[in-house]
Specification:
The protein has about 140 residues and is of the alpha/beta class. Helix content is about 50%, strand content about 25%. The chain starts with a strand and ends with a strand. Belongs to the universal stress protein A family.
Length: about 140
């Protein structure tokens, strides 16, 4: 078993990474960081993975958990909300983590009226418990 974190380049992802690391350490398991990309083209994928690895290492250092075992999984999806959600949920199903940690940004009242939030799709459709880490005001 592992703890999975859905990673995105927004600041809420850094908070989710840190909380995911704490949850993995608490549970005595590994951390798996899932990042959805439009394409798994080798050059782009390696550049993405290197940048994500830097973010994971920074989050682990900030939480005083530098020895935690972790891995980055790049998953091919699209750029549409439904495609990203489906790709992420497919990776979660394949990995079978005991917990999925996601970051969520605050939305305006108007933004809440529109459907299509990736976080909302994941919360509603994931087959594992989901821990949502909100960005500060």
């Amino acid at each position: 078993m592992s703890v999975a974190v859905a990673h995105h380049t927004r600041s809420s992802s850094g908070l989710a990474l840190a909380e995911g690391a704490r949850q993995a350490a608490y549970r005595g398991t590994d951390l798996v960081v899932i990042h959805v990309v439009e394409s798994l083209d080798n050059d782009i994928a390696e550049a993405n993975k290197a940048g994500i690895s830097d973010a994971v290492e920074a989050a682990l250092a900030a939480t005083s958990l530098p020895d935690l075992r972790w891995d980055v999984r790049l998953v091919a999806g699209g750029s549409e909300i439904s495609q990203v959600s489906e790709a992420l949920l497919g990776a979660v199903e394949e990995l079978g983590p005991e917990l999925l940690v996601i970051g969520a940004r605050r939305r305006s009242p108007l933004g809440k009226a529109f459907l299509g939030s990736i976080a909302q799709n994941i919360i509603l459709d994931a087959d594992v418990p989901v821990l949502v880490v909100k960005s500060p005001r």
